[in-house]
Structures are given as C-alpha cells and as structure tokens.
Amino acid sequence: MNGLRAVVVCLVIACATLVSPAAAVTPSWSALPVPAAAPPVTVSDLAARGPREAWATGYEQAVDGLRPMLYRWDGTAWSRDTTFPGADEPGWLGKVQFVGDEAWIFHNRAGEGEILRRSARGWSSVPLPRTLWTYQDFTAVPGGAWVVGEDDTGLKVLHYDGSGWTTQPTPDGVLFLMGITARTATDVWAWADTSTGTTVLRWDGTAWRDAKVPLPPDSNVHTIMPEPSGRVTIGGSQYTDGVARTYLMTFNGLAWRTSYPPLGDTYTEAMVRGADGALWLPLRSDRAFQSKYARVDGRRTTFSYGPERANAIEVKPRALAKAGSALLSFGTVEIYGSKPNLMSERLGG
Description:
- The protein is mainly beta and 349 residues long.
- The protein contains two helices and 28 strands.
- The protein has helices spanning 2-19, 21-24; strands at residues 29-32, 42-50, 53-62, 65-73, 78-80, 91-99, 102-109, 112-119, 122-127, 134-141, 144-151, 154-160, 165-167, 174-184, 187-194, 197-203, 208-210, 219-226, 232-240, 243-251, 256-259, 272-273, 279-283, 292-297, 300-305, 312-323, 326-335, 341-347.
C-alpha cells in the first residue's frame, strides 16, 4: 500500500508540474554590467537592431546641468559612446530608431534640436529648422522623420523627408501631441490631447486625420505600436471613479479589441513584442531588490523577476528591446546609500 501511495504522489506532482502556469513559463533574467554615469541618471530609450547592436539613451547630472548619455551594446558588453557631436555639451538624448543601416537619435543640444545619425562612416547630424520650447517626441523610418513639440506659436509637427523640413498642420481641435510613432513614411500614428479628450491621429502620406479609434471612456494613451504585419497595439490607462487601470487595444486590420490584463496601473510606454510573439513590459516591482516584468500573450498574463541585487532599494527597468531571440532591458538601480545609477538585464540569448 505504501508503494502504491508513493506512485500516486509522484504522478500528482508530475501532472501539477506540466499544467502549472508558474512552471510553464520560467524565464530567467541575467544582469549585464553597465559602466556607471554621474548619478542621478535618467534613461530615455533603448532600441536594438539584432543580438549584436543596441543603443540606450538618456542623460546624467553633471556639475553644470544635464549631459547627454549614450551606451552601445555589441552583443557581449555595454560601453559608453562619447564620440557623437555635442557629447560634452549640455543637453539630453531622447528616442533612438533604426533607419536602414543607420541609428537615428533625437538630441537636445543646449536647447537646440537635432537628429544624430550613426552610420558605418561615423556620426552626422541634421539640425531642426526651428527651436521649440518643448520637444515632446520623435520618430523615424526610411523616407521620413517627425519631431513634435511646441514653440511660442503653439503646436508644431516638423517633418523631414530626407532633403528638407516642412511643418505639417493637424486637425482642428488638436491642442497637444503627446507622442508619435511610424510604421512607414506614409503610415504614421500620433496620440493627441484635443478639445474633446484623447484622440488617435494617423498620417497617410497626405494629411493628418482622426483615426476614429474607439478608445475606452475616460482614458489616455501611453504608447502606440504599429507592426509590419499590419497589427497595431495601443496601451494606456482608463479611469473609473478616480482609479486607473491599464488597458490594451489591438487592431487586426478590421476591428479593435480591448482587454484589461491584470497589470494594475502600469505605464505601458516601454511595451515591446518579444521574439516569442508575446507582449512584454516592465512593472513597478513589489520587491525592492528585483525588477519585475509582465508577459501578455492573449488572455494569459505571467510575471517574472530580474536577478536579486544586494542592498538595492529600487530597481526600475525603463526600456525594453527585442535583440534577436533575446530581450534587453535598460534602466536604473538605487543601492542603499547612493543615488540611482544604470543597470541592464537580459532574458534569453
């Protein structure tokens, strides 16, 4: 009888291992060393072309103000790049995009805006045609780049077609563009604050128009992710009785579907689609010494933690990027008794 009981117990454990959601997804994150910057630091963006090239941007706090901060991943290690124009001048680096064989990065250079371009021949820059009070966002694809912000005359949408700049008008009622992203030079998406609330706009190569996206009531947009397949994913927050919850909307080419994964009130700006086809995003961790990530695959949401960091009081992944079959994370870690400095983690690879 004891032998039979032992067999039954073993079978139960084996079956539980096969069907347990926690056991089915057991991602393992590893820490990647990053050369320290001058704390406190702020991470702006991260983009990867593949497993052997990624760029992370942001700024550090120098004695006389902000200084731009640029790091490069070569597939083996992170290193700091200080060869770009204006690296030793006041300013900051924003979004980074890959355009063909080049990396394009928005650069606020002592208040003046420009696009840094990195090719096999080295660095070059494309100055903006005018100075803006606020540089809100930037996106670039082959054949076009956009910078949105404001100056003393109001909202500005600046478009670069490879040879020169133009200013594009937006629909009536648009007060402010909060973000912009592009799939192609004739398929660009933006989310705007309008006189009637948050609205999604779309550029079709001719004009900006209301995309007629049925956003949830009393909601905002954090990010829009158009993909080469035609799928579009929107992430944001919906407010009910003053309480926010994260929503995701997916467009399959015909209709929008809205879901509410168990993410609490998570800011979805850093959301990416991994090599496994699922959506990944960093979360506010409930463990001071570990980062936390969510994986959303249809109706199923699972969670994983980064490596434990001794004496850490806050670990904050700021940006994610798919790097071949791996995921790269870049952000900050605050060790007890010191100011936040840089950290990076990798899943897979």
